[in-house]
Amino acid sequence: MNMFVTLAVSALLALQAVAETPEDAKCKYAWASLGSSEGDLHIHDGKPGQGAVAWGAFQNDIRFSGWDFLDLQSNASYADDVQAYASGAVEAYLTRDLIEKHYNNMYSRYCDGQSEYCERLSEFLQENLKYSNDQEHLYDSTDPYWHMVHLQMKQLAGLSDHLENKTLNTSNEYLNVTRALYLNLDGDLMDLEAFLRRVGDENSIFQTSACSVLIKVLPDNEDILFAHNTWFLYRSMLRIEKKYTFPWHVTSESSEIIPGHTISMPSYPGKLLSLDDFYIASTGLAITETSLENNNDSLRNLIKPDNAPLTWVRCMVATRLAVTGSQWVEYF
């Protein structure tokens, strides 16, 4: 269980500069366009051309700064679910090598000696996916919350399809557990490992708490500063600073753009959230969390696969829709 803190900040753009597109000569560019058949998606190298649905720039700088940098954008003239799917596919295309390495570091041996636990986990996740998909299609056109859940899962579908070498089509849904989902589960597994009775070992995700936050108010309330430190597993330290600019709409039938259309965050390969968590959003909010462990085991009895979307999904939904700290908590 994690504790989130949301802060309104005025210096949004200054902090977003961390994730600005690096110099052209040091970047790898890619963009996605629709094909001649309905929903077919094609990915091209280079800067975006005519009809680009989504595009990105990636700088591999880990050897020098310890960080890679990814800047992704999508085109508001396309339907939201098309934007989301294409964005996930472009991210997988640009960062595939790092995603493979990060998965191998974190999850390639996760089920070794844990077959019964992993079977229970797979069943839980599959039930949750079905519940979420059903709710998305019931409320996508009327409820901003479930529209954002739907787009988060479409982004995951695009990332997963490219990672697993499937034919890219924007009509594809995320219906079955793949490596892409595991890459986003770290925060959820900190509770699910206990709930589903995993026997702790060196491949477990929940071996330690992970975060510290510093918040400081300057004299005369001139400004507020916040800093974050992540001290997670050493094998998790392939890092990407990401900036997402997705002009999605409040619902699939709305013309209003979501308040959190632009998000900057430290993240990891294949993750569609920060996980640290440390966000600057176009809503004017800064969102961060510090570890707050659950010491009341009876609360885990309330965990049900058909109660709510997973933590990683709710976090991004809240960050995209909330314009106040209290709203963020309500959405989450």
TrEMBL record:
InterPro entries: PLipase_B-like, PLipase_B-like_dom1, PLipase_B-like_dom2, PLipase_B-like_dom3
Keywords of the record: Glycoprotein, Hydrolase, Lipid degradation, Lipid metabolism, Signal
Species annotation: Ixodes ricinus
Name this protein carries in UniProt: Phospholipase B-like
GO MF term (any one): phospholipase activity
Pfam families found in the cross-reference section: Phospholip_B
Gene Ontology CC entries for this record: extracellular region
Domain of life, source organism: Eukaryota
